[in-house]
Write a structure and sequence with these properties.
- The complex is a heterodimer of chains A (about 260) and B (about 450).
- With about 260 residues, chain A is an alpha/beta fold.
- Chain A has eight helices and twelve strands.
- In chain A, the strands form three sheets. Chain A has a six-stranded mixed β-sheet with strand order 6-9-10-3-11-12, sandwiched between helices. In chain A, strands 2-1-4-5 form a four-stranded antiparallel β-sheet.
- Chain A starts with 5 loop residues before the first strand and ends with a helix.
- Chain B has helices at about 10-20, 30-45, 60, 75-85, 125-130, 140-150, 385-390, 395-415, 420-430, 435-440, and strands at about 65-70, 90-95, 100, 115-120, 155-160, 170-175, 180-185, 185-190, 195-205, 210-220, 225-235, 240-250, 255-260, 265-275, 280-290, 295-305, 310-320, 325-335, 340-350, 355-365, 370-380.
- In chain B, the strands form two sheets. In chain B, strands 1, 4, 5, 7, 8, 10, 12, 14, 16, 18 and 20 form an eleven-stranded mixed β-sheet that branches. A ten-stranded mixed β-sheet of chain B has the order 3-2-6-9-11-13-15-17-19-21, with helices on one face.
- The N and C termini of chain B lie far apart (about 50 Å).
- The chains are: A alpha/beta (about 260), B alpha/beta (about 450).
- The interface of A and B includes residues 94, 113 and 145 of A.
Amino acid sequence: MTTPLIEIKNLHASVDGQEILKGLDLTINAGEVHSIMGPNGSGKSTLANVLAGKEDYEVTDGSVVFHGKDLLDMDASERACEGLFLAFQYPVEIPGVSGMQFLRAAINAKREHHGLEELDAINVMKLFREKAKLVELDLDMLKRSVNEGFSGGEKKRNEIFQMAVLEPTFSVLDETDSGLDIDALRIVADGVNTMRDPERAFLVITHYQRLLNYIVPDFVHVLVDGRIVHSGGKELALELEDKGYAWVDDEAPAAAAK
Amino acid sequence: MAQLMEPTNLYAADFDRLVGRLDGAWSHFADARRAAFDRFNELGFPTTKHEEWRFTNLQPIVKTAFVPAEPGAAVTTDTIDHLAFAAIGGCRIVFVDGFYRSDLSNLADLPAGMRVLSLGEAADDALVCDHLGRYATTDDSLTALNTAFAADGVVVHVEKNVNVEQPIHVVYYSTAGDRPQVTHPRNLIVVETGGSATVIEHYASDETGDIFSNAVTEAVIADNAQLHHYLLEREHEQAFNVATLRVQQGRDSRLESHSILLGGGLVRNNIHVEMTGEGAHGLINGLYLPHGDQHMDNHMRVVHAAPHCDSRQYYKGILDGSSSGVFTGRIVVNEGAQKTDAVQSNTNLLLSNSARIDTKPQLEIYADDVKCTHGATTGQIDEKALFYLRSRGLSESAARGLLIYAFAHESIDRMKLEAVRGIIEKLLVHRLPQIELLEGLL
């Protein structure tokens, strides 16, 4: 039996004293793409932020094992160095820090964590050029302050570019598709598809089925009120699109009772 | 306002000794000197009851028995080289404890059309006779005190249409004496019509010793002329430093003033600019970085006395430890100074809960067709940005360092002189966590 890449058990998490995740279980193996869908307020973004290590969220119960290590015991920086990546729903603007400075610092923080030598400026540029092609990103954008003045689509492409550069083993995409036009959506999906390989896994969080036409998941889960109430193959996404979340809401008590 | 201040008889004996020592070259200034000393005695040191000094308490200076510094301290070229950044190049004039030191200075390669002199040696130069004391008024008691004791400093003279690219580096180095020492550096910069100059005024000191530098720089920028002025405060963290820059701007002239305050225990940085010619442009840029118990007070005053002038004040503070900072910025638009375009902005980053900033942007407008904006903000490190950086693998301290660096960088970017910019970046980075990481990025 293979060891899962990430194993989430009975995860409970609150923000400002209000419980959002109420016993979430999810196991993802290397090589798999999972999608989580769910209505607004079901806890999708909370899950993404809890996994990335945002301190505003308090984990009150449960466990998360990542690469055989206790993920909840690591701070956000360590999680990233260990191979976790969160593509933000709302990427943050950082005036005064250029994309190049930022990413170079990130690459070398990760390399230092793994006892590797620093990547020099020339090789960093080589890597940037290679990955920028992947997401059709103009390298000049990296000379500008991180995300500052970027359009919505540019911000999301920049997230995927960072993912490509940092080569995480587990990437969480938090509503990366929201608000994207079809061209940007295609670019984002291509970026993810190019990176799919037996060593890596993805958790694609989305509100809409549309993205899953481009990034075809192995498994689809439906999150309602802080718990996964339904899991299935890629067909589930289509069924949801047809019937709406009300359908799974009806199913929910049955799933919870299991 | 005089009644708000403490009357004083301080320094009378020191004053008489100075007057006795100065030779005939200073006779043209004798009356002004005497008047300034009387004025100082009448005003006394300002107290915190004085509106312009509300947040800066000078009692530690008043209570210390400062004596005038003596010449002849043993300082080697190595010491000065080490702190004065050979990389900047250009000419250098060095003052130790306020006295000109030709042995440490290098004025051999001055370009034609430019003079750099010691005021002590050129007290009766025609330029000095014409300009000294004309701009820095003695309404302010510390300026009056400086005028009373002015005996040395730099005189920079750029002739008509002479453009000097290389900076003149003026170093004020203070040594530690047996007793608390005071110096009153007095500088005069005159850039004639169409000329341009860059002057770096640099204060540094030994690691210890009670010192008080009370400096006044008068700068005249004639029509269509330019002055780039850098003030770099790097004295040790118990030093007292009051530096006043008083600028007179002619028609279509350009001032770029950059202040970088890193050192000093109690620092007051006065920048007072008067735009008397139409179409003058002033950039007043500053960065103050107190930590520990340092106190840094920035006092700006820009007077638009002619139409079509524009001024830009950008001051940024990064405050750590239990340090404190002050920003007082006043834009005065005189009657008739129509089409004034003035911007003033003060932004602060507080890195600790015990750091404090008092900021007071002010407008005083007597014309009706002007554009003036001002604003001040104070905040802490943006937690969202911090998390974003950490989520990519940067450690908390590296992420913090990068955000602080980014905050400061806007100020540094405004500095035109690349060599200076590089040095400031290095000095700044050494104040931040995760130095190694940041140095690799620059």
